[in-house]
Amino acid sequence: MYDINQIINREGNAPEGDLLDLGDWSEQIAQELAGEENITLSKEHWDVINFLRDHYQRCGPCPNGRAVLSLLEDNFSQQGGKKHLYHLFPRGPVVQACKIAGLPLPPYSADASFGSVM
């Protein structure tokens, strides 16, 4: 199991907008971050957020944003895959979901071709 705190703190600070410590994250903080994104969290949102956090703790950071999107699409294919994910996170399931989950953005996440319009 990966220790998210060691991974994030290896460089001394978290990327912009990310929390320094996984322990700093809470459902209340997630609600506030979602509010900043104009998202009202539903059970479906929480499923994605919890999946991302669990995966990060088990496997560590993904090599890039495309890998995260592929992972999400595979896991949520029964609910509608990419279409479902974009319905939940309209500015991009990788960027918005990782932000709300309190996780660092994977490298190359600002590429609009897979879910970021930042």
TrEMBL record:
The keyword Cell division does not apply. The keyword Cytoplasm applies. One of its GO terms (cellular component) is cytoplasm. One of its GO terms (biological process) is tRNA wobble position uridine thiolation. GO terms for molecular function: sulfur carrier activity. Pfam families: DsrC (PF04358). Keywords: Cytoplasm. Belongs to the DsrC/TusE family. This is Sulfur relay protein, TusE/DsrC/DsvC family. It comes from Sulfuricella denitrificans (strain DSM 22764 / NBRC 105220 / skB26).
